Amino acid sequence: MKSGGVSRLTVLGFLGPAVLSLALIGIVPLAFAIYTSLHKYQLTNLRRTPFLGLENYQTVLSDPVFWDAMQRTMTLLVIVLPLQILFGMGIALLLHRPGLGFLKTLTRLSLVVPMATTYAVVGLLGQIMFNLKYGVVNQLIGFLGFDPVNWIGDPTNAFIAIAFWDVWQWTPFCALVLLAGLTMVPGEIEEAARLETKKWWTILRHVQLPFLIPGLTAILILRTADTLKLFDMVFTMTRGGPGSSTELISLLIQRVGFRVFDQGLASAQAIILLIITIVLSQLYIRLIYREVQQ
């Protein structure tokens, strides 16, 4: 049988590997996580996994430790996401201006370096950079005449260091996405707007912003999902400490699942986190992208 001049076997040959990979990488683990979240699934006793229904979810939702970790994660998201978008927008607008061809090319290449570096390596670099005695950050502070700051050992400073490091790593991503949106603005319309007004804010609001909305929505969705599941950088940099001051929700899930060995409870926490991420993504689409389309 052929469909539109292409045989079904050909279509299956092209789509089959992608569908199979999606099932193995995404759907099967998700289904297993849902299964374990409904059972008493202890890694220390896999022979007995009784069905619990929604008991794990009730335990999670009534656990103050879970909500403390969620609050820290949301606080980090509220801090870093606006800063990444704000700094990214500034960098994109500067790179969008005419002139300085070689310098702009060099800047674009350098923007790839932070986001191309893996989270674990970024965390190790942060641990070195914010070291109390030998860190570069305290060295710079010393040159300015101030006393060294205990970044990793102080609860508040450790959270600030993580936020700063995440902004450093992912501001270039926001800048490149927004820069791609700026390149979609018709040149003649932008030139006409610059003749009408010299205010960059007016041009950004009425001419450039409609072309930036799709990229901005993608940034909100991707960076929200990445921040909510942020693990590697924080784990290698502070391991959730000192105390639990930087124990984000992903670190709590890892601790419950692989230190307490309660996979059922950890899976319930992960599913709740997934639901929160989906809800936030839908809110972004409804409040920003769809509103602009209308």
Q: Quote the CATH topology.
A: MetI-like fold
- What's the count of strands? 2
> What's the N-to-C terminus distance?
42 Å
Number of helices in the DSSP assignment: 12
- How many domains comprise the coordinates? 1
In CATH terms, the superfamily is MetI-like
Radius of gyration: 24 Å
Q: Give the uncertain stretches in residue-range form.
A: none
Major pleated sheet:
2 strands, antiparallel
Share of helical residues: over 70%
Mean pLDDT: 89
Q: Return the CATH architecture.
A: Orthogonal Bundle
Instruction: State the secondary-structure class.
Output: mainly alpha
Strand order of the main beta sheet, please? 1-2
Shape: globular
CATH hierarchy class name: Mainly Alpha
- Share in β-strands: under 5%
SSE succession = EEHHHHHHHHHHHH
Can you describe this structure?
The chain is mainly α and 294 residues long. Strand 1 and strand 2 form a beta hairpin. The protein starts with a strand and ends with a helix. It is globular, with a radius of gyration of 24 Å. The protein has a two-stranded antiparallel sheet with strand order 1-2. Helix 8 crosses helix 9 (200-228). The longest helix is centred in the first third of the chain and has 33 residues, at 64-96. It has helices spanning 8-37, 55-61, 64-96, 101-116, 119-129, 136-143, 155-182, 187-196, 200-228, 232-237, 249-258, 263-293, and strands at residues 2-3, 6-7. The chain has one domain (60-293): MetI-like (MetI-like fold), CATH 1.10.3720.
